[in-house]
């Protein structure tokens, strides 16, 4: 299975604190049956500039590689560069969106605001989806459900073929959430999954547990479909060499 949402790279955002934690998170993911992870550190427009941020992302990855043992290399998933891009009102006009996609693809993870969405917010994502070559991924849709986010906007993205919707493992692992996510997963409105892991202990890699939960409440066929959809998304992705 593919983990599309991780904060495994150290010292670049609020994820891993050091190389040791990063490697531990990679091994934890692999032990749960995750063979591919997309590295999605936060990109905040007000805090980051694209060139130094890209350089830092590469540096953190290179540092992890320096500390990997031969045994580590046999027990970690393959890795692909990506980003979790903070929503900005004019991001549909940025000339460097291509630098923030999942490497080798046209998929870009766009984190929506943690405040009530407006029609203008939706228009920005729609413009990217409908009028550029990029396909937005809406991460952790579960965080906006049952909140102040207008349901009509959540439903808009769930029904929009040009947008990919990702759900977090922690929500799937919540026993009381089954009635809410089961129909979304089974109908294909939520297409990909992620752990959104930040450390080996706090918000740890837990996608394997979510997969087991889905196997109980859905079916192996649903899991196979999710896996196949993700692999199709990454068919042209560029994997990082370790």
Kindly describe this structure.
The protein is globular. It is of the alpha/beta class. The protein is built from nine helices and nine strands. The chain has a six-stranded parallel beta sheet with strand order 3-5-6-7-8-9.
Poorly predicted ranges: none
Beta content? 5-15%
Shape: globular
Element-by-element helix/strand order = EHEEHHEEEHEHEHHEHH
Overall helicity: 25-40%
Give the structure's gist in a few sentences.
By secondary structure, the chain is α/β, with parallel strands linked by helices. The protein has helices at 19-31, 50-67, 70-74, 119-131, 151-158, 169-172, 178-186, 207-217, 220-233; strands spanning 2-6, 36-39, 42-43, 78-81, 84-86, 107-111, 135-138, 164-168, 192-194.
List the helices and strands and how they pair.
Blueprint: E1 2-6, H1 19-31, E2 36-39, E3 42-43, H2 50-67, H3 70-74, E4 78-81, E5 84-86, E6 107-111, H4 119-131, E7 135-138, H5 151-158, E8 164-168, H6 169-172, H7 178-186, E9 192-194, H8 207-217, H9 220-233
Parallel strand pairs: 1-2, 2-4, 3-5, 5-6, 6-7, 7-8, 8-9
Helix pairs in contact: 1-2
What labels describe this entry?
single chain, 242 residues, alpha/beta, three-stranded parallel beta sheet, 9 helices, 9 strands, 39% helix
